[in-house]
Amino acid sequence: MTTKNIAPILAGLLIFLGVGVCIAYAQSYVPLAPLPGTYTGSAGSETTDLSTYLSGIIKLLIALGALMSIFVTILGGVQYVASGITPSAKQDAKNRITNALIGLTLILTSYLILNSINPELVNLKFELPVVSVAIPEEVTGACPSPNDSSADCCPSGVSCVACSGCSEVTGVTNKGCGVGVCFLSTTILSKLQYISYTGGWRITESWPPTVDHISACHQNGTCADLNNTDGKTDPTTIKKYYDLFKSAGLNVLYESSDCAPYTAVGVGSCGSYPTMTNASSFHVY
C-alpha cells in the first residue's frame, strides 16, 4: 500500500462512520457480544442495541485512525531525514506526511461532527460488563394470600380452608395467628375496627386458626375469638365487653367453664366447650 492511498482510505473511513451513525439511529438490534463500553441501563439490567454498539466501534476506529496518522507522519519525517539529497525520496516523504496530516484532519473533523451530534458517541470511557446475580427474596413463611389454604397458612393438624371474603387484620389489637399476616371476614373486621377506640380487648384467634375448633367458621375466617387484655374475668368486666361487642352488631357467645355467674348479670349467651384454650373468651360472628 502506498502513502497516496492513505487519504482516500481515511476518507472512506469517515463515510463509513457517517453511515454507521445513520444506521444506529434508524434501527434497533441487539448483538450477541456487545463491545466493552457499549452497555446502557442500570446495573443488572444492561442492554445494548445497534446504536450503542456502533458507538463503541466508532470510538475504536477514531482512536486507531488518529494513531495511524501520527505514526505515518513520524515515519514520513524519518524518511525525509534519511533521504539525504535524493529528490524523489524527499518528495515521497513529503507526500506521506501530507497524506497523514490530511487523514488526521479528517479524523479530527469527524470527531467534532460526531461530538456535535451526540457527545456520548465519542465518550472514550470503556467499562467492563457488570455481572448481576439475582438473589431470591427471603421466604418469610407468612401466608401469601387469604385465598391460600396451603400448609404455609394452616398449621399441621389444624382444619383450614381458604378465607372467605377476608381482609388483612389492621387497626385492631391482635394476638397473632402464627404467621406474618392475619386475616378475618371483612364484615366482622369492620365492626371490630368501629369499636377499636374502646381499648382493653384483643383478637385472640383470627385466620388462619392456630388450633382446631368445633365451629367450622374458624376454618374460613368468618368468626373470631376475643378476650379482655388485662385478664379480668369477673362478671362485671365480662358484661361490659359483652354489651360492647353486641352494640357493634356482632353475634356474641361468651365461653367459660362456669356460665352461671355471667348469665346472672345479663350475659345472654354463654357456653363451655372441650376445645377451649382460654379460661375466658368471646366468640363473635
Question: Could you please describe the fold and organization of this structure?
Answer:
This protein is of the alpha+beta class. The chain folds into two domains: 3-122; 166-284, no CATH class. It contains seven helices and seven strands; from the N terminus they run αααββαβαβαβαββ. It has helices at residues 6-26, 50-82, 87-117, 186-194, 217-220, 235-247, 260-263, and strands spanning 166-168, 183-185, 201-205, 224-228, 252-256, 270-271, 280-284. The strands form two sheets. Strands 3-4-7-5-6 form a five-stranded mixed beta sheet, with helices on one face. Strands 1-2 form a two-stranded antiparallel sheet. Helix 1 (6-26) packs antiparallel against helix 2 (50-82), helix 1 (6-26) packs parallel to helix 3 (87-117) and helix 2 packs antiparallel against helix 3 (87-117). The radius of gyration is 41 Å and the shape is rod-shaped. Residues 23-29, 40-47 and 133-141 have low confidence and may be disordered.
- Count the strands? 7
Summed up, the helix count is 7
Approximate helicity band: 40-55%
Arithmetic mean pLDDT: 74
Q: How are helices and strands ordered from N to C?
A: HHHEEHEHEHEHEE
Q: What is the CA-atom radius of gyration, in angstroms? A: 41 Å
